[in-house]
Structure formats: structure tokens, C-alpha cells
Design brief:
The chain is of the alpha+beta class. It contains 5 helices and 4 strands. 12% of the residues are buried.
């Protein structure tokens, strides 16, 4: 990805529904250039798809959290495969430091949240977890 691609992706992150003509005007390139670059990045997998961002109050009843996970030995692959089976796990980030993984959790209720915590803690290869509820989100 070159600088133009990165700027294009930045504009799409801010609003994926921005018309190609508006993107071209902002980037000072032709509409065809923007469309070709979007198509090329999608074909390469650099752009995996387009989505929406809901206002936090639209999800007011949901329980969201991050879970830091320590993995025993070389079990990261098996733990990651197990986490993929949980629809409540929105994303998993591999990291360094004290924790090996950070999982983003999203549930419809506290009861569902408690259940998924219990189930994740039973995954073979997980040696410790620490979970924090997300109280407020600020989009930048």
C-alpha cells in the first residue's frame, strides 16, 4: 500500500459510504483512479469489506468487554481456534507483554456475559484471564 492507498483507506474508515467522486476530489485524483485502487485493494484482501458504526446509545443494552488472556506454552493456535467458535468474541488481537491475546467480547446481557466468561476460561491452554467491561466508547 502506498501513501494514496493509505489516505483512501482513512477516508473510507471515516465513512465507507462516501461516493467515489467525493473521494477522488478529496484525494485530488480521478474517479477512475479511486475506483481502480478500491477494486485492487479488495482483490488483494487489503480491504476485507465495508461496515457501519452504530452510535453507542444504539447498543445501550449490550455488554461489551475486553479479556486479556495468558496462554500456556505454544497453545496459541488451539486457543485461537477455540475462541473463533464463540459468536460473542468480536475480535482477537495477538499481543506481547504479560498477556498473549486480547479478546473483544460483545453479549446481549450480563447473564450471557457471565456464561461466555465461564466457557472461555475452560478452554484448554488458557492459564489466566483478566476482563474489563467497556463503560464508554469514544470514536476518534
Amino acid at each position: 500500500m502506498d501513501d494514496l492507498d493509505r489516505r483512501l483507506v482513512g477516508l473510507l474508515r471515516a465513512n465507507a459510504r462516501t461516493p467515489v467522486a467525493s473521494l477522488a476530489k478529496s484525494l485530488k485524483v480521478s474517479r477512475g483512479t479511486v475506483q481502480n485502487r478500491i477494486d485492487r485493494m479488495m482483490a488483494r484482501g487489503a480491504i476485507a469489506g465495508f461496515t457501519i458504526r452504530a452510535r453507542p446509545e444504539a447498543d445501550a443494552g449490550r455488554v461489551r468487554a475486553i479479556m486479556a488472556i495468558a496462554v500456556e506454552g505454544e497453545r496459541s493456535g488451539a486457543v485461537l481456534r477455540a475462541l473463533r467458535r464463540f459468536p460473542e468474541v468480536a475480535a482477537v488481537h495477538m499481543t506481547n507483554g504479560r498477556w498473549d491475546m486480547i479478546a473483544e467480547l460483545d453479549t446481549e446481557s450480563l447473564a450471557g456475559f457471565s456464561g461466555v466468561l465461564d466457557s472461555i476460561r475452560l478452554i484448554e491452554g488458557i492459564s489466566a484471564t483478566e476482563t474489563s467491561l467497556l463503560l464508554t466508547t469514544h470514536r476518534l
